[in-house]
Amino acid sequence: MLAGDIGNLEQVIIISRDPGPAPQSYIAVSGGIFRDMTIHDFDMARYFVPNIIEVSAIGTNSFCDYIKEENDFDNVTVTLRGSNEEIVTIVNSRHASFGYDQRIEVFGSKGMIQTSNITNSTVKLSNNVETNSGEQFIVNFLDRYAISYRQELKLFLKGISEGKQYNSTYDDGRAALMLADAALESAKSGKSVKINLN
Length: 198
Description:
The chain is α+β, with helices and mostly antiparallel strands. It contains seven helices and seven strands, in the order βαααβαββββαααβ. α3 packs across α7 (about 170-190).
């Protein structure tokens, strides 16, 4: 983490909430929230904590009847434990009335790194009625991830031209899917699941 600027990693908090749930036709074939949505956060978690050894998850149906009809959750929290006793907490929801809500906090023995939501504007209003108000966060995923998609493609092309692997590998994808399956098992059973990603 920035050449040790935050010391030994202790906690990671990843928050990811979509602007609204996908249509029922998509939810029915998505593989469920852990394999469809949280899987991206499992990838990110492994960037910070590569050796995850335990998964605990809880899922609820807080707001969307058709997601419940598809035997899936619309609201989940996952806790991962690393081999060096790091804790990763992932919070996901299929809706946020104010747009994509995606933040990360990485906490260590000497400090912390945080990233916040991407907004359409850096202008904030503060007056005697409200503070820090602004437009809702970006709601279209193509707009929200445009920079990321360009950077990913650029890195992919660089890897091809240099004959190197810069992007995620098959093993990374396999590990994320194993975490998703463990999270689903934990949420359904109410028990923590030990895992070996090797």
